[in-house]
């Protein structure tokens, strides 16, 4: 019954985090490093990796059995020939709902209350109204993807009095935190109804450029678009046009395409665009790291005991598998 | 049973609003104007005023029976010798809870998610993390004043997972949207417990400079202070010091003292201060005007029918009277 593996941990683990992980599989040998410092050799030697190594370091690893990503998005490991055949892949769904949904809510309020332009005015010492604002209360919010992040965001805006429409890939009963539930196929008919649209989908082949120029045109005049998924889900140039023309009231983007956004990209300067540098899911919120470690430790315990893992990612869809 | 009065309305009333007011008291004569355009003569001639005239115009009015303010705060009419003796004074409590509480929530998230510094970075085309953030979830929020605005704000942060402590002037049962209720006398013992403090009190003699240098020092290291009341409730210089020293994580101020904030005031430049120019309760949110008109129309109907008015302000306390 001995379970002795070489586990590489790429997390900013503090002593109590290390203790938690080691308790889950006491006979394993743990090596702690970081994305920046870890070597190809260390990655190739590991049987289990917790955290996200540089994708090209894992290629053709002779030892890797299981990669547990610290992230919710695992798109860089879904590409062909990155993970050795048969490698188990799990993610940290459940760790990011809090941090990302609060960040999304903050960007949303920043846009609809014009707090970004009030900030600009403050820098100029300008005591001056910036015009009409909108409310979350009684607005219609379309949440695309009801996973950890989308579900948490839907709960929040519903609690603040919005009418919430949820969109899911697969058939499911309506959760109590949305007012309507629809399938992905209904997207185009729902877009014109929404005052606020939040994209909370994983990046897969199917979701690439989901928000094409044509789909952006379906959004209601004066709508607000939020993206907490991946920048590649939106046609950036078409979005810039929709913002500059005034078709959209604003966009809150924690992710962009390309990323990082180049210094001279037009998006930086669009007054109604609020851009943050893909940080809502980092460890800037201490609770996020706590959750990542708890999820990893539990999965390690399951793996050591030969039990089915949580948060298995289905390679064909890029979505989490139902356990 | 005829009720024929001269009613001066100082609201940006559209046709449907005028119809609503006139339905409430069909025999009255209505004059519509604005704060800027109204003359002293028109104010002195009115028997009923709906909206806020320049305070010195109402002094010694021989005709004024009732002033219904469009605002929640009525401090400028509470000063001695402003209103003729015996004038009834009512306010528009109930109209501002939505707009101001959403604005407060936006400023709070802007501060704790560092969206203001991300905005500054965006202006510089800088793709760069700005450091640790905080969450509303599991934070302790002290809401001082549970009127329309404080109550709405308390509901919102509670729905977002905060532990909410409410502070009231008078004894009352705990509403279900707070976790604890306390009386004003407990303020000093509660300040060190709160991660977030929201001031939602009317401006009265008692609340003037409530947040003195000594009280600001009682706040927890790293706390966030929000003010949606009046700037005069806080010692501005002491607040600037508490922000600059890093004792406070940030402050969200829709009101300042003095107001407007002078061009060369140090508060403008403090990185952790978010200042908006007393706009959260204006008609920037269209729903606010709808509510103001509904409240006024209902009160006018009550007045015309000789029934007790809603939202009577007690001159001695500056608070709303229980009906």
Automatic annotation (TrEMBL), chains A, B:
PROSITE patterns: D_2_HYDROXYACID_DH_3. It holds the Pfam family 2-Hacid_dh. InterPro entries: D-isomer_2_OHA_DH_cat_dom, D-isomer_DH_CS, D-isomer_DH_NAD-bd, NAD(P)-bd_dom_sf. Residues 9-313 form the D-isomer specific 2-hydroxyacid dehydrogenase catalytic domain. Residues 105-280 form the D-isomer specific 2-hydroxyacid dehydrogenase NAD-binding domain. Keywords: NAD, Oxidoreductase. It comes from the Bacteria. The keyword Ion transport does not apply. Belongs to the D-isomer specific 2-hydroxyacid dehydrogenase family. PANTHER family: 2-HACID_DH_C DOMAIN-CONTAINING PROTEIN, D-ISOMER SPECIFIC 2-HYDROXYACID DEHYDROGENASE NAD-BINDING DOMAIN-CONTAINING PROTEIN. This is D-2-hydroxyacid dehydrogenase. It comes from Caproiciproducens faecalis.
């Amino acid at each position: 019954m001995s379970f002795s593996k070489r586990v590489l941990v790429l997390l900013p683990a503090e002593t109590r985090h290390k203790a938690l992980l080691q308790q889950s599989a006491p006979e394993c040998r743990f090596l702690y490093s970081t994305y920046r410092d870890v070597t190809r050799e260390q990655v190739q030697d590991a049987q289990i990796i917790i955290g996200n190594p540089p994708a090209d370091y894992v290629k053709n690893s002779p030892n890797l059995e299981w990669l547990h990503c610290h992230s919710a998005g695992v798109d860089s490991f879904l590409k062909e020939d990155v993970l050795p055949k048969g490698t188990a892949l799990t993610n940290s769904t459940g760790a990011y709902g809090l941090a990302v949904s609060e960040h999304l809510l903050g960007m949303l309020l920043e846009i609809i209350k014009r707090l970004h332009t009030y900030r600009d005015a403050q820098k100029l010492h300008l005591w001056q109204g910036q015009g009409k604002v909108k409310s979350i209360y009684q607005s219609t919010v379309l949440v695309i993807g009801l996973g950890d992040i989308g579900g948490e965001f839907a709960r929040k805006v519903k609690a603040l009095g919005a009418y919430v429409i949820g969109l899911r890939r697969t058939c499911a009963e309506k959760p109590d935190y949305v007012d309507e539930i629809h399938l992905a196929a209904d997207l185009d008919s729902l877009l014109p109804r929404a005052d606020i649209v939040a994209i909370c989908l994983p990046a897969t082949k199917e979701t690439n450029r989901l928000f094409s120029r044509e789909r952006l045109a379906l959004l209601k005049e004066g709508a607000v678009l939020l993206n907490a998924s991946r920048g590649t889900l939106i046609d950036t140039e078409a979005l810039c046009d929709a913002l500059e023309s005034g078709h959209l009231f604003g966009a809150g983007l924690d992710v962009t395409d390309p990323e990082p956004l180049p210094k001279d990209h037009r998006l930086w300067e669009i007054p109604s665009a609020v851009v943050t540098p893909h940080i809502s899911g980092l460890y800037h919120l201490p609770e996020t790291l706590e959750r990542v470690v708890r999820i990893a430790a539990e999965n390690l315990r399951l793996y050591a005991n030969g039990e089915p893992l949580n948060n298995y990612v289905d390679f064909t869809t890029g979505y989490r598998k139902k356990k």
